[in-house]
Amino acid sequence: MTFTNYSDAEDQKAHVFSTFLKKIRSNNSISQEQLCLQLRQHSSLFYNLDSITVSRWERGVNIPSLAKQAEIVELYDDELTSIYSDDKQFIRESSELIMETDPINQKSNHPYFRNDNYQIHTIDIDDESFYLVLKMIMRYEGNPTINFELPLEMLDRLGDLKITIATAFNRQIIGHCLFLTSTTKATLELVNFTTNLENIIKKNIHNESQHNTMLVLSSAGATKQVENSIMSTYINKFSEQKQLRFMCFSTSNGSLIKKLNKAKLEPFKVKNIELLQKTVQVSSYIITRSEVMANRFLLKLAVITPMQLNDFLTSVGKGKNI
Questions:
Q1: Does 93 reside within a domain?
Q2: What is the pLDDT of residues 193-231, one digit of tens each?
Q3: Do residues 287 and 265 lie in contact, with contact meaning Cβ atoms separated by under 8 Å?
Q4: What are the DSSP E strand ranges found in 148-299?
Q5: Looking at the structure, do residues 141 and 276 belong to the same domain, yes or no?
Q6: Rounded to an integer, what distance in angstroms lies between the CA atom of residue 180 and that of residue 187?
Q7: Rounded to an integer, what distance in angstroms lies between the CA atom of residue 204 and that of residue 210?
Q8: Could you tell me the pTM of the whole model?
Q9: Would you say 248 and 191 are in contact if contact means Cβ atoms under 8 Å apart?
Q10: Domain of 41?
Q11: Alpha-carbon span 49 to 56, nearest angstrom
């Protein structure tokens, strides 16, 4: 079995997952042996779990892997994000993804952005810049799956598309994301190129109650920190909506693909598509909810609430540390 070790006695006593385990046993009036039985029945990850191990978890002697933690909290209808949001050290690590101060890690790919202050905004279809930003994202991404046959202004249900942007001085856009929710069936059709985004949007009106997948079609930023800020907005939103069981990235953006691969995510499908006399490689990743929560990088982004993100960005502007 895989464990995370903690040597500091104070940390052992206070670890948030140890506290969670003791709480669920108390709330459900079950013994450590009964908890073992429930976990062994729930998942093969716990096939050789015994009460001695549970005792060590509760005392903070060692802590199970995030994969096991994700399975345990799911069984008891909770979320790792709600548990780790109380962990000050974990929140500090999350903030470091947004508040990098080392100039070496702050390289900008934007011609006019040099790590200035920036803000995060969500825009909807009623925003006067919605169509302009959507067209910009489509040009930037170059992803065949987000091409539309009809002019955007003629399409219904475009309001299903969610857009978040990062803006710096003079409202320069230095980061963006484009995502929506849909069904697993529609998502699989999209990544297999048997349908397109236009058709998914049309079908969404008939199956909204069945939406169980977040589909991310573009996510980018001028620096790693802006990229992470943008990612935190939709990953946190995913974590807050328990009906969403899958997250799918379908992208041709090399920077995002590199980031996902670095986070040890395996692509579900990689396909070369001919578009305007050039070959575009689209990589698709389909991740279960438990896998999102069990991935330390994604979990760090998921625990960042919109209010905390704003606080982090304000602190960066003032030169403060969390």
A1: no
A2: 898 888 898 888 777 889 999 999 999 999 899 999 999
A3: yes
A4: 162-167, 173-182, 213-221, 246-251, 269-275, 278-288
A5: yes
A6: 11
A7: 9
A8: 0.88
A9: yes
A10: 3-78
A11: 12
